[in-house]
Amino acid sequence: MLSFSNIDFSKSSLFHTIIDAFKKIDKDFPSSYVLSDLKNKIEEAKIYVSVEVTNELQVKKLLDLFFFRWKFGGAKKKYQLSDMLWMDKVLKTRQGIALSLGILLMHLAKEINLTLTPILFPTQLILKYFHVNKSICFFNPLNGETIDRRTLDMWIKGNISPTSELKKSDLKESTPISILKKLLNTLKTSLIEEKKMELALNTSNVLLEINPNNPYEIRDRGLIYAQLECYNASLQDLNYFIEKCPDDPISELIKIQIHTIEQKKTSFH
Fold first, then answer.
1. How confident is the model at residue 260 (pLDDT cuts 50, 70, 90)?
2. Where in this chain does the record put each Protein SirB1 N-terminal domain (predicted)?
3. Quick check: 99 and 125 in contact, CB under 8 A?
4. Measured between alpha carbons, how far is 58 from 155 in angstroms, rounded to an integer?
5. Sign (positive/negative) of CA torsion 257, 263, 264, 269?
6. Which of 18, 31, 75, 139 could form a disulfide with 79 if both were Cys (CB 3.0 to 4.6 A apart)?
7. How far apart are CA 105 and CA 141, in angstroms?
8. Angle at CA 218, nearest 5°, toward 217 and 219?
9. For residue 169, what pLDDT is reported?
10. Fold for domain 14-171?
11. CB neighbourhood size of 148 (10 A)
12. Contact between residue 118 and residue 174 where contact means Cβ atoms under 8 Å apart
């Protein structure tokens, strides 16, 4: 299985790296189903877009196939966030969030020689491609709708601050590793909220393979260990965070957590 300590994205695609990560997090993850289903979709997509000549029109055909024929999109009813991230469930239900649907779209595009560029915008993942005249088209991977700069500026003002403005850095292309970490962090958070602590712990450990000794990730792992009643491991991780980030505002809260865990550890024994 792929090592996450030094990923070479020239040899392993983002999508296949994600599948390897999911397998490491959940030994029962059905990777064979995902790859088989995707193989069929890629073949269908090749035929569907081949009627168009230009890359721009082929991208539009792919979006038509993805959102209107296959009917991928956002959740239609109440859902668990992790179900919108696990790729097997996204493929089965055809429901996801912008992040998971965008990753899926990028992979399909790449396999049929089209390019969709990811941008981790402050509010969500967006994708872009180029028109024939070299102008840029941004779109929402949640529904395929085009997004203009005015809308993006409104998203910034509505979600960050009324005084914030769209910056050039907000539209910078995102690297595969940053998208992988964003997906895994979102998955970890959702698993914690859903009380799936063992899977959350596995996710945290994969993130630490990618970025060893990250004090914030070690802090999160310590909090997960506490939920699993692994008090020695929890204290080791939380104390590491205090040592490395003594001036962080959350350190005082972590010290209270450490005191609580020490009391539980004493009463447990």
1. very high
2. 34-185
3. yes
4. 28
5. positive
6. 75
7. 8
8. 90
9. 93
10. C8orf32 fold (3.10.620)
11. 10
12. yes
